[in-house]
Design brief:
With 299 residues, the chain is α/β, with parallel strands linked by helices. Helices cover 38% and strands 22% of the residues. The protein has nine helices and twelve strands. Strands 1, 2, 3, 4, 5, 6, 7, 10, 11 and 12 form a ten-stranded mixed β-sheet that branches. The chain has a two-stranded antiparallel sheet with strand order 8-9. The radius of gyration is 19 Å and the shape is globular.
């Protein structure tokens, strides 16, 4: 039986060994004719050379300067969108199940109203504990939460479910939908770009669906998350953009509750723990959002 063409986009930045493991797991995927693109963000650890030497079947986009996750992934999608029916967007710190693409494509082909299909994502170091099984944004306070986080896998997480968004470290997208709405919002750089894309696809009339039989394992905290204040600044800024742009929940009440209740509560907790830099990250993220200051954080 002929299978629809599928492309895979992997964004990489200085994680050569982890990228190698991801590519090795993709070699074991049971799906014909996969077109794999690595969009490399000016890595200096030998990642591009490793891809060229060890994975000659992979198309390498070797950027001379760092693009940020959103733009690097978008460039990879742009390379594939005219050649494929579906694009699987993922990262350089995952291991995938050999049947992951079959499971996603089978559902997508049977349900043409599905625009984004997410995966069941486990912690890599705790392979039976869930990291992500679909997500919601609370309609009152605007804080996002993921189903199953830190819980052992259970039958309750084995049902197909419509979600507000699914984790961008592994989801399937329809190329025809990307032609209509575009790729990631590039000036978000990192954080919430996956949720924003999911909301835009929902607003175009498609479903965002969690597929529990499509499985992968994620190595958490391998990149920017190590710099907590900067991560909080990006995630706060982009989270407020998400609430405002998509008028989530009881908007504008949800937005104000997030600014004047949720964010101060987080800052208070960090202050009690003596983590003043984290408080500053949240505050500066709010200020960036107020000023409409997107793109790279350089100050």
């Amino acid at each position: 039986m002929n299978r629809p063409p599928v492309g895979i986009v992997i964004v990489n930045w200085n994680l050569k060994d982890s990228l190698r493991a991801t590519l090795e797991s993709l070699r074991k995927v049971n799906y014909p004719g996969l077109q794999i693109v690595v969009s490399d963000n000016a890595s200096t650890d030998g990642s591009p050379e490793m891809v060229r030497t060890e994975f000659p079947e992979v198309h390498l986009l070797a950027h001379e300067t760092e693009q940020g996750y959103a733009r690097a992934a978008s460039l990879g999608m742009a390379h594939l969108v005219d050649q494929t029916k579906y694009i699987f967007s993922t990262t350089n710190d995952v291991i995938v199940d050999p049947e992951i693409i079959n499971e996603l494509v089978n559902y997508a082909d049977a349900h043409p109203e599905s625009g984004v299909l997410g995966t069941k994502i486990y912690f890599h170091d705790r392979p039976d504990v869930i990291w992500h099984a679909g997500a919601r944004v609370h309609p009152l306070h605007g804080h996002s939460y993921t189903f199953g986080w830190l819980r052992k896998d259970h039958a309750r997480y084995s049902q197909v479910r419509d979600c507000d968004f699914v984790g961008g470290c592994g989801f399937l997208l329809r190329s025809e939908v990307l032609h209509r709405i575009g790729f990631y919002k590039e000036d978000m750089i990192f954080y919430s770009e996956d949720a924003d894309l999911c909301y835009r696809i929902r607003e175009a009339g498609y479903r965002v669906v969690y597929i529990p039989t499509a499985k992968m394992w994620h190595k958490v905290g391998t990149t920017l998350a190590k710099n907590r204040p900067t991560q909080l600044r990006y995630s706060t800024r982009n989270g407020l953009y998400l609430l405002q742009r998509h008028r989530i929940g009881l908007y504008p009440l949800t937005l104000w509750v997030h600014i004047f209740v949720v964010s101060p509560a987080k800052m208070a907790i960090f202050a009690l723990c003596g983590r003043w830099a984290n408080c500053c990250g949240i505050y500066r993220g709010i200020r960036d959002w107020q000023k409409g200051k997107y793109g790279w954080i350089t100050d």
